[in-house]
Amino acid sequence: MSTTTRPAGAQAPAGHRRGRRRPPAVLAVPAALAAALALLPLGYLGVRALEHGPGYAWDIAADQRTLELLARSTGLAAVVVAGCLLLGVSLAWLTVRTRLPGLRLWAVLATLPLAVPSYVAAFAWVSALPGLAGFTGAALVLTLACFPYVYLPVAATLRGIDPEQEEAARSLGNGPWQTFRRVTLPQLRPAAAGGGLLVALYVLSDFGAVSIMRYETFTRAVHTSYRASFDRTPAAVLGCVLVALTITLVLAEVRTRGRAGHSRTGRGTSRPPLRVPLGRHALPAQLWCGTVAAAAVGFPLATLGYWIAVGNTATWDAPRLLETALNTVTVAAAGAALTTALALPVGVIAARYRGRTAQLLEQAAYAGHALPGITVALALVFFSVRYAYPLYQQLPLLLAAYAVLFLPLAVGATRAAVLQAPPVLEDVARSLGRSPLRVLREITVPLAAPGVAAGAALTFVVIMKELPATLLLRPTGMDTLATRLWSQTALSAYAGAAPYAAALVLIAAVPAYLLGRHRP
To answer: Which has more pLDDT, 66 or 7?
Structure first.
């Protein structure tokens, strides 16, 4: 099978170049609904922030403490993104493009940190090394928890790149490093930039890890403000600052992504990607992979094992544990299905169309991801109490919160998958009289299905671990593994929390394993 590439500045196939500005209604209408849901918390923030007038809101936004929070949050995000790019790109290269011994095992281990909640990892590290608390501990924990967001899209892109391009570069006298820098790296840029954006937004919205590490960020300050006062205005203003920061990051990622792209005319390349022999570097490469896996997965699991061992049979309420696990799987599966359905039209538009409408729809999808879960939850409570009271403390409201929080994960995966699907096939189908809906159903979705499924699995994992919104919006009497673990940890009942943490990690490890078991 052959591969077609489109470097920056080259023309796309006539009739379906990504410069087309108006997506069809079959995509635009559901994408607009998804964007409206994602923007709903912003309406709440606007109402609350301006409750006492714009002057009062500006005084809070320009306060020295707000600027300090901005510097602390952006500094933490920058360090974590840099660390995740280093870990994610290096591990993707080693597991996909080299003859690394045991590469299938390392590929699976590189995705398993997705199964370890950041607050569980933070507890594991701070309980063993109390002096690690603060910026260093928060940066370490979040980097080890988030690097799979970079690893997965970069590894998928490496598998899809035509090896003939690299062979051509080598035949022209370029060495391995020059070939990587000039040919491979430009094609990895969109995937790495998208993964880095998800990491940055995750760090800005994280509550559990920074709270356990006692590092003050926007999310922790928002949570403290909500709990300390009946006046919601200060917390809403901080949320607005966080939204402005999110928009800035999304715009920066769009510019960093560039216009380069590549697509295939078949379901795969004619042969596997080139593999670089490591030679004397094989042992250091294995040590690198082993160190990352031990720090990101081994250490937290060992800590959980210790707390389970020091506990007793009273900490194991098997019926309640089973019920809670079933609740968790059910809610996460429903939330992932809804989020993926909402993300599909947005991802297709982001991949296939340019223009203000496409850009606004994509940016709107990212609006809620950097907001603290408690802010999104309170926005939905505000909406349901005033306009849709039957939804209050019902499962649909919780699922809507998950969609707002994690829509970018599914959008990013869908966009990357559609970018690798050849647009010429859609052009041919349209030229034969197929409607936009039939083209989407019969051409675009089947070709992008593996990437969309990977995004759904990733969304399932992160929903299982979500904490603040679940605490506030879950139906009365329903617990998830995350909420039970948090309630036990808040009481310092670490032995009682350990079974719920272990169950959460084990269940989340299944989709994480499936994400990593692609043949490297």
So the answer is: 66
Helices (H), 175-232: 176-179, 185-205, 208-212, 218-228
Q: How many CB atoms lie within 10 A of CB 77?
A: 24
Neighbours of 157 (CB within 10 A): 23
Yes or no: say if 118 and 145 are a contact pair by the CB < 8 Å rule.
Answer: yes
Closest C-alpha to 91, from 340, 288, 383? 288
Is residue 152 within 8 A of residue 199, CB to CB? The reply is no
The domain locations on the chain are: 19-262+281-516
Phi and psi dihedrals of 264, rounded to 5? -115, 150
Segment 311-323 shows an average pLDDT of 74
Largest CA distance in the chain: 69
Residue 12 CB neighbours (<10 A): 18
Structure tokens at 516: 């990593």
Yes or no: say if 412 and 253 are a contact pair by the CB < 8 Å rule: no
The pLDDT, as a whole number, for residue 177 is: 67
Instruction: Please state the three-class secondary structure of 275-330 as a single string.
Output: CECCHHHHHHHHHHHHHHHHHHHHHHHHHHHHHHHHCCHHHCCHHHHHHHHHHHHH
Average pLDDT on 36-47 reads: 85
Question: Under a CB-based contact definition with an 8 Å cutoff, are residues 503 and 325 in contact?
Answer: yes
Tokens of 160: 């899809």
d(Cα 77, Cα 144) in Å, to the nearest integer? 13
- Per-residue confidence band for 74, with pLDDT thresholds at 50, 70 and 90: very high
Do the Cβ atoms of 223 and 242 come closer than 8 Å? no
Spatial distance between the Cα atoms of 283 and 491, rounded to a whole number of angstroms:
45
Residues 6+ apart with CB under 8 A from 288: 90, 94
CATH class of 19-262+281-516: mainly alpha
By C-alpha distance, which of 386, 332, 343 is closest to 44?
386
Cα–Cα dist 146/156, whole Å: 17
- The DSSP H or E segment spanning 261 is strand 261-264
Q: 187-242, pLDDT tens digit by residue?
A: 788 888 889 988 998 898 888 889 889 899 888 887 777 766 666 788 788 878 88
